[in-house]
Amino acid sequence: MSGAMSWPFLRLYILVLLYFSANAILNVIIPLQGEFLGASSTTIGLIMGAYMFTTMFFRPWAGKIIQKHGPIKILRLILIINGLALVLYTFTGLGGYLLARILQGVSTAFFSMALQIGIIDALPEKDRSQGISYYSLFSYIPGIVGPVLALGIWQAGGMDYFTVVLIGIAICTGVFGYSAKIEKNTDQPEGNAPDQSVSMWESFGQLVKNSHLFRCSVLMLSASIVFGAVTTFIPLYASQIPSGNAGIYLMLQAGTVVLARIVLRKRIPSDGRWHATFIMGTMFLLALAALCVSMSTTGGVVPFYVGAILMGIAQAILYPTLTTYLSFVLPQLNRNVLIGLFIATADLGISLGGVIMGPLADLFSYSMMYMICAILGAVMIVFAYERRNTVTGTSVS
């Protein structure tokens, strides 16, 4: 095997799988434990949202620091911090969970940026979209087994098992990650010269000034709000649906993401053009998925699980499509930092999915909250429309 599936990259993907295994379990355990301890949906949303909000805050600086020091040095330090966060979950309550989520957020900001920047820098342009797709694919594989495992731990009342599993994941991730290597592709042009560095605050301004970055960021922010609402509240919402099972839903969604990434990996655009119809179709799937989930209280498990499959397809397509597009159209001078800002909007969306949608669920209902998510997705279908198909700003037929 060569390119994005060569052994050095496979090692990175396996590291991604190990790293995100803990989250697949925590995304189920934390809401259930919070409800057991009497926390409201708003409180649970704040704890869950703290993870991605912290990740969002540190992501741009992660891109800048990694660009300066290289991904491997940063990666090894971050794996230690992540291990400490996982251990903290094993002996604390809701307050400790909040602190652990913040530590995890810092770790994930640097971990994901180090891996993605390393992959982008190491692969030739023709393999770039596949590399990003595989990274994202392996981050979702734990979601197939993790929710079912988490529910098994919860139903057995065995938080001792929870402790053993989290500590085991922390050790395995640290040991495996310490030996990882990323080599830069020598065919790519060098990035910043020392006297050409762009300040972080100038880069923040590009979120509005750069039309490519602005459009992709708004789409990713909106979609991530929906994804975050699903991750945070499906473990609680499923109990309101006759025969509904949160583990099956999350397993279906994650399994669909994995399968779609494998089947569609060569269909994700990697040419620097804005494929409006492709992205509008993806947002339509997202809106339809949220609508199915919303209607499940009256429609039963069929729309509930259909929503999981549609949500998985949308999730599989959107992120690698937008990330790959930006890797072509953003200026090389500060590309890493700008991609960090884009990914930060995804983090912010996931966080807002808990922080904003939690109070809406308390005020109305989970069903109405997911209906609002469907409306948001529908609005983004229109936003994704672009009359010009662009390659770094030029129109094509």
Précis, in short:
78% of the residues lie in helices and 2% in strands. It is an all-alpha fold.
Kindly describe this structure.
- This is MFS family permease.
- Residues 8-389 form the Major facilitator superfamily (MFS) profile domain.
- GO terms for molecular function: transmembrane transporter activity.
- The structure is a single chain.
- This protein is mainly alpha-helical.
- It has one domain (3-182, 200-396): Growth Hormone, Chain: A (Up-down Bundle), CATH 1.20.1250.20.
- Helix content is 78%, strand content 2%.
- It contains 16 helices and two strands.
- Helix 9 packs antiparallel against helix 10 and helix 15 (357-363) packs across helix 16 (366-383).
- The longest helix has 30 residues, at 7-36.
- The model is unreliable at 190-197 and 389-397 (pLDDT under 50).
Q: Give the structural class.
A: mainly alpha
- Number of E-type strands: 2
Under the CATH scheme, which class?
A: Mainly Alpha
Number of helices: 16
Keywords: Membrane, Transmembrane, Transmembrane helix, Transport
Pfam families: MFS_1
Main location: membrane
Subcellular location: Cell membrane
Topology:
Blueprint lengths: L6 H30 L4 H29 L1 H19 L4 H29 L2 H16 L1 H14 L3 H20 L21 H10 L1 H27 L8 H19 L11 H19 L1 H4 L1 H29 L5 H21 L1 H7 L2 H18 L5 E3 L2 E3 L1
Antiparallel strand pairs: 1-2
Helix pairs in contact: 1-2, 1-4, 1-5, 1-6, 1-7, 1-9, 2-3, 2-4, 2-14, 2-15, 3-4, 3-7, 4-5, 5-10, 5-13, 6-10, 8-9, 8-14, 9-10, 9-13, 9-14, 9-16, 10-13, 11-13, 11-16, 15-16
